[in-house]
Amino acid sequence: MTVTDLPALNASLNAISTVLLVTGYVFIRRGDRRRHRACMLAALTTSAMFLTSYVIYHAQVGSVPFKGTGWIRTLYFAVLIPHVILAAAIVPPVLITVSRALSAKYDKHRRIARWTLPLWLYVSVTGVIVYLMLYRL
Description:
The chain is mostly helical. Helix content is 84%, strand content 0%.
């Protein structure tokens, strides 16, 4: 694997994280705490792997400019800007949500998870979209 493979790996990790988050949500709605916990911890691990790979890639390559023009450029930045802002902002809520679950503070966990999950999903999904637009369009 080379540095040029990392964007595809990053998009794959984001996609896997999305699937794990949705699956974990389905499990908790069904009352299956054990599988919910496994999926959410796997999503956290996958997201941490993404972040590590992302930092390694951009430390070596730097910023990659979007080459599209016209309306697609506007669309790209309309997706990218909230993605970047929320990607930075979601880290503390994710850590707090996981911490509350692991310490069995389920009422507090549930309250913050209602906000954390949709934001984390948004970041994961838009991460894949940004990759597709930047590297495959």
